[in-house]
Specification:
By secondary structure, this protein is an all-alpha fold. The chain has 5 helices and no strands. It is elongated, with a radius of gyration of 16 Å. The model has no long low-confidence stretch (mean pLDDT 96).
Amino acid sequence: MNGMRWIALLVWLGVCFAFAGLGAYWTADEVTGWYRTLARPSIAPPNWVFGPVWTLLYALMSVAAWRVWLAADSPLRTWGLALFLVQLVLNLAWSWIFFRAHNLGAALAEVALLWVAIGITTIIFRQISPVAAWLLAPYWAWVSFATALNAAFWRLNQG
């Protein structure tokens, strides 16, 4: 059984980083192309910051989901993990909407929905594993900043 715990961690890491990889694939060319043409808000960090931050966040998210997966089977655990997967899809969708579709307004609405989904997931995770909820806290904080950043890009680049 102990070996299965570690295999499950590898699975969660694989799931999360598969989403991260697809998002990065959709984003990479746009960062050096279209994204460079945008008016840049003063709160925008240098582009090199995003890779290390997202790598850390996806690692923390993986461990959070794993810790919840380790808990006793329950409807709450099932809901928590389902919502975790929903927020992963929403996170990926944001990359497509912002970087591929170049729709800053729709991306802003979508990231607000993502923020809510992360919040609900965190609240549910807290009931199952407080450590898992704390592991999601930096992600929720970063998406809070990302929402403000998206809003600033949208405001500066309308039309």
